[in-house]
Amino acid sequence: MILSSKDFGRRWLFVVAAVGCFASGCSDDAGTTSQDTTGSDTVADASATDTIADASATDTGTDASATDTGTDASATDTGTDASATDAGTDASATDTGAATDTSTDTGAATDTGTATDTGGGDVVSSGTIAFTLRFTDFVSSSPLEGLTVSVLDETATTDADGEVTLSVPPNADLKITMTGPGVRDYFIYHHTGASDVTLNYAVATDTTVAALEAVLQMSVDDSKGLLSVAPRERGTFGAIPGMTITADAASDLALVFDASSGTGLSPGNTTLDGSSSTAIFVNIAAGDVTPSFDSAWGWTCDGPSPIDVPAGAYVIAEYLCSYTPVEIGLELTDFLTAAPIAGATVAILGQTLTTNDQGMVAFDAPPNEDIKVAVTASGVRDYYLYRRTPDHDVVLSYALATDATIAALESALGQTVDDSKGLISISPREEGTLAMMDGMTVTLDVASDLALVFDSGATTGLSAGNTTLAGSSSTVVFINAAPGQVTPTFSDSNGDICDVGPLPVDVPAGSYVVANYQCHAP
Q1: Are residues 414 and 289 in the same domain?
Q2: I need a labelling partner for 41 at 20 to 30 A (CA). Which of 161, 226, 473, 510 fits?
Q3: What is the CA radius of gyration of the chain?
Q4: What are the tens digits of pLDDT across the range 315-364?
Q5: Is residue 72 in some structural domain?
Q6: Does 237 lie in the same domain as 380?
């Protein structure tokens, strides 16, 4: 994508936000997420029982990364009043229905919940929620008056504030139609919550579309359409990174929000961490379009399918997505004595937990997610554990090398463990079964003083080398590896590919890093 000037870059960022309020997140949906954590599967991964400074531990996992922090500047949900709000200038008006009255009434009107007050473009009836839509020009932010807005069998015209309030069912799938002078036809697919709501939409006017064409150096084809597809987490309405969005119709260009880009957008159709989870398809073939969602997290998304994309229209389709978390039990022990490590601080997925007297913590996690667990404890160097979560409840056991263990290791090796460098254990496992993999050679792209492999035939249980041995845990331990970003590589006679796991992995000075990888046939 070529930008002709800084000004176009700014306008491009605005265009992205305007691609529809849902291109970034219009509302704070009041829905809830049902999370099933009742599974009775508690597996202490039988694939590995590592008892050395390796601490690679009990294996069980399959993964998927992601944390969504994207925010969509185009939308604000202010509807939390389940009863009534009268914002009119007439203090004598009394609303007793579930309505939001934004009109400038000058009479002593009384809304009993069954009446229709059309003084300010409002249509409100009982047994429903008040659904307020506010449309503004995304460039000037000025309200767009005189737009015709239709939802179900209700139609109203935006007032001087660019607003309409309609009566709609709660927890319902809606298709909103908006038309008006200087604006291409908009079709917005939205799922209502349980409460009154206000949604703000920054609209791409004809002038905006012209700016978009200049920035993209391509024509927006009026025989085709513009489509924004916005998956959001059900309940929190948060962004979902790592979600690949595809459509079953051809388009000329796909864009995703990118907070790290100077323009706010990047070519592609996989949502990015720290950005609004929206994909925009430019010049998509008109007609019925069905989007698909693919994520290692195992998200399931509900929303319109198929979507009707009329020629020359702008369509915004939002989807509510959820996953069933797995319950992870994490057990930390001293690998020499097998005693539990109580009182350790465990940081995981934004939570800070403390191990109990049994050295255990428990937390919920998305299935099939790559996670990083940070462990700090008295008498133990800082640990960083990388692995992929399984798709079922599980207990993961890690035997950690305490300071006493490190001293014993130094004595046995006749070598000092350098606290300005790091210890790193790399554990390749067979994808799916998590079985050990013998004959796998592991190398690092940084220097280390020594590489060791587990060797069940050796008196010490270890041998010098970096190729895993049959009948032993498939783990290679690198002593005094240079700190920083480290990328391991894997090779064996089968040409197996180990692409599930952290690449690169961060190795802080003085730490012990344990990284598990899953490998498969080419």
Answers
A1: no
A2: 473
A3: 28
A4: 999 999 998 889 999 999 998 899 999 999 999 988 999 999 999 999 99
A5: no
A6: no
